[in-house]
Design a protein that fits this description.
alpha/beta; 167 residues; Double Stranded RNA Binding Domain; single chain; six-stranded mixed β-sheet; two-stranded antiparallel ribbon
């Protein structure tokens, strides 16, 4: 009977020695990492307004704060995100009678550099692209805020998964 308890105690010791830090979202974060920084994402597009990279930067910061227990710092975090908005394209996707678009598409791409000094194999530099369609009878300025909310939700989810979920 004593050997049974010994196996349980040894199992608990072995499991407690594992050093994997989990967040509320189930993401794997290096246990040494206590902080994260997200530098302001610049604007490398010709038509996106200055509010677009600002909103994206804020959304990425919000996601990291809400889905991890890392403290957000302005610069030189244990884990670091930086980059720029590389594309902002409005294009027709469906044409109805004549030349009028039935639907338009807003496509946004961001280039992200992620640095993980604790596990350099998880660091990356990658472009992420997402889009949302809208009614062709509307002007982009009428629907942009709604589209940005949806596109940025998808982009930040992709970036988070790539950085912390081995996606």
């Amino acid at each position: 009977m004593r050997w049974w308890w010994a196996h349980i105690i040894i199992g608990i010791v072995i499991l407690s020695a594992c050093k994997v830090k989990m967040s509320l979202s189930g993401a794997t974060i290096p246990p040494e990492a206590k902080t994260v920084s997200v530098e302001y994402f610049g604007n490398q597009t010709t038509i996106a307004g200055p509010h677009v990279p600002q909103k994206f930067t804020e959304k990425l910061r919000d996601v990291l704060q809400s889905q991890t227990n890392l403290s957000l710092v302005p610069k030189n975090g244990d884990l670091q995100f930086s980059g720029y908005v590389s594309d902002y394209i409005v294009s027709p996707v469906a044409i109805q009678g004549g030349d009028k678009p039935a639907q338009n598409r807003l496509t946004i791409s961001v280039f992200v550099k992620y640095v993980n000094p604790y596990d350099p194999s998880k660091s990356f530099e990658q472009s992420f692209t997402r889009y949302a369609d809208y009614d062709g009878t509307k002007n982009i300025s009428e629907v942009e805020n709604t589209l940005l909310t949806e596109i940025f939700r998808q982009l930040t989810e992709d970036i988070f998964n790539r950085a912390f979920n081995n996606w």
